[in-house]
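[audit] Reproducing an earlier prediction to check determinism. Same input, same settings, fresh worker. If the C-alpha cells differ from the archived copy the diff job will pick it up downstream; this log only records the rerun itself.
[audit] input (251 residues):
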Amino acid sequence: MVPVYIIIPARYASTRFPGKPLVSIAGKSMLQRVVEQAARSVGIDRVLVATDDERIREHAAAFVRVVMTGEHPSGTDRCAEAAALGHINAGIIVNVQGDEPFIQPAQIQQLIEAFQDDTVHIASLMKPMHDPIFIHDSNMVKVVCRNNGDALYFSRQAIPAVRGFGQSEWGLKASYYKHIGVYAFRVETLQALAKLPPGRLEQAEMLEQLRWLEHGLNIRMVETDFQSPAVDSPDDLAHVENFLKSHPELA
C-alpha cells in the first residue's frame, strides 16, 4: 500500500477570525481537535501541521509534528511546501483544513479509497443538498459531476439551473451537491498544482479548484452524508458548541 499523510494547514492571520486555530472549543483548541480526529483515521502514516506562525507552532508541537513554511495564498500551496520540507516524495496527501474540528475519520477513509482507481489524482467530498435556501446561497459552493464522478464545474451559483421552474422548485427537479473542501492528492500532483498560474474562472468565482479544472486536471468527487460545522468567524463558535452538545461522543 502507498503511504498516506494528513497535512493540516493552519495560519494565525485570518481576516475574519485572527488566531482561529487556537480558539478553545469545550476545553481543547480547535487545532488539537482537528489533529485528534485526523489521527483516528485507519492506515495513516503521519499527521502534520503546516504553519508560518510561531504561536501555532509552539502550541501544536505538544501533540503533533509541525512543519514551518513560508507565507502562502492557499492551504494547498502550504501543503505542497510542507510535503517537500518533510521529504514526502510519494503516496497520498490529505489536506484537512484547520477549521474542521469534527471531520470524520470515515470521510478521510472515503477519500483514500478513491485512489484505488489508478486514474484518480485528486479527490474531494460533496454532500447532497435539498433546501432551496442553501441551494441559492452564494456562500455554499456547489459542484456538478460527470457520470464517472469527476467534477465538471464548481460554482457559488446554483448549478444546474432548471429552466421553466421557479427557483424554490429547483431542488425538486434536479440534484444539488455542496462541495466540502477536504482534498486528497497524489504527492506528484500536489507539487504540480502548486506551480500552476491562477486561472480566469478561479479569479471570477474565487475558488482555487477551478484552476485545476482549467488546466485539464480531474477531481474525483466522493459523496458523503455527513457534514460538521466549520469555523469561519467568531459567530460560528455558538453553532459549534451546539453541535458538540448534540454529538457528545466528539467531546
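[audit] rerun output stored. Observation attached for the diff report: Residues 104-227 form a domain with the Spore Coat Polysaccharide Biosynthesis Protein SpsA; Chain A fold (CATH 3.90.550.10).
[audit] end
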